[in-house]
Specification:
By secondary structure, the chain is an alpha+beta fold. Helix content is about 20%, strand content about 40%. The chain has 3 helices and 11 strands. The protein has helices at about 35-45, 100-110, 160-165, and strands spanning about 5-10, 20-30, 60, 70-75, 80-85, 90, 95, 115-120, 125-130, 130-135, 140. A hairpin with a 2-residue loop joins strand 9 and strand 10. Helix 1 (about 35-45) runs antiparallel to helix 2. It is globular, with a radius of gyration of 19 Å.
């Protein structure tokens, strides 16, 4: 899922040759800042910063379905998966990004929505308005699968209800 993007600067060398620099975009995503931070923040505590598996060092951002951003954090003991709709996804994919650093960057952005763009060298640009930040991402195809639990007994609770229930537990 690659798109070629012309960045249009012309570079003149001493031999009077000129060429147009081209780069290949692997992912372009526009999301709501508040919603993104709401989903990302709990992942920071789970995402490992130092792990034998480099694919676990960060949070997996998956936009493969073309409509949603799926966040996954997993340290082989505990894991969390969360989903939010994207404003737009032009090129989807799976990438592992440093959760803490990404959170810090997003908090500094001025606008309600922001963009994440990743090129073929895994250079990631997070931008909004006149603010631009660069981080490095890793291909998320090798991210370990989180265990899925199947049961005939299950329930779905809003997070606010679960939070209230846990707050009432006496230690």
């Amino acid at each position: 899922n690659l798109s070629t993007v012309s960045t249009a600067p012309t570079v003149n060398t001493t031999k009077k040759y000129s060429y147009e620099i081209e780069r290949t975009r692997c992912m372009l995503l526009e999301v709501n800042k508040e919603e993104f931070l709401e989903k990302l923040t709990p992942m920071i505590g789970i995402a490992s910063t130092k792990n034998a598996l480099t694919s676990l060092e960060g949070v997996l951002i998956d936009t493969s379905d073309g409509e949603n951003v799926v966040f996954t954090a997993y340290d082989m003991k505990k894991g969390m998966v969360s989903k939010q709709p994207a404003v737009s996804i032009r090129d989807g994919g799976k990438y592992i990004m440093p959760a803490q650093r990404l959170s810090q960057i997003i908090r500094l952005l001025p606008d309600e929505t922001f963009f994440i763009e990743i090129d073929e060298k895994m250079n990631t640009t997070v931008y909004s308005g006149s603010s631009r930040f660069s981080i490095f991402s890793v291909n998320g195809d090798n991210y370990p699968l989180t265990p899925e639990f199947h049961s005939d007994r299950s329930m779905v609770l809003p997070s606010s209800v679960l939070r209230d229930m846990l707050a009432r537990v006496q230690h």
